[in-house]
Amino acid sequence: MSSSSSNRFRRDPPPTHCECEEPVILQTSKTINFPLRRFLGCVNYYHGSACETFYWVDPDLPNEYYKKEVFKLMKKVKLNENKIDEELKRSFDFERSTMQKQAVVLQMELKEMKASIGFYRKLVVFLCMVVFILLLVK
Ligand SMILES: [Zn+2]
């Protein structure tokens, strides 16, 4: 399995475009046989493209031991990235819910302040009327 693909490693000039006439992109293999080995390929390589443009950029790892170790490290990094993503998501969700609660409290405070402003406004109007009437009576 590894021999057929590794035989495709060659030193002729790398392709710039694929069979679909799209510019090739640098990609990284994540398979157990070619962990982290970079290649140039079709932009749709991982999306079921029938395009066969493929060019290894890196040489194959020298033996199965290195391949296994690199693959294990790759999996470990992925696992840690997932843990970090989960932790960030949990922290984000907590912050969001805290902020939503604070927003509710602030909205209630705003409502109360508006209500008390309304009350004081009516009180001022009432006192002005009292003063006005007292001035008329004198
Ligand atoms: Zn293509």
Automatic annotation (TrEMBL):
Keyword Transmembrane assigned: yes
Keywords, in A-Z order: Membrane, Transmembrane, Transmembrane helix
Transmembrane parts of this sequence: 119-137
PANTHER family according to UniProt: ZINC ION-BINDING PROTEIN
Name of the molecule in the record: Zinc finger GRF-type domain-containing protein
Organism: Artemisia annua
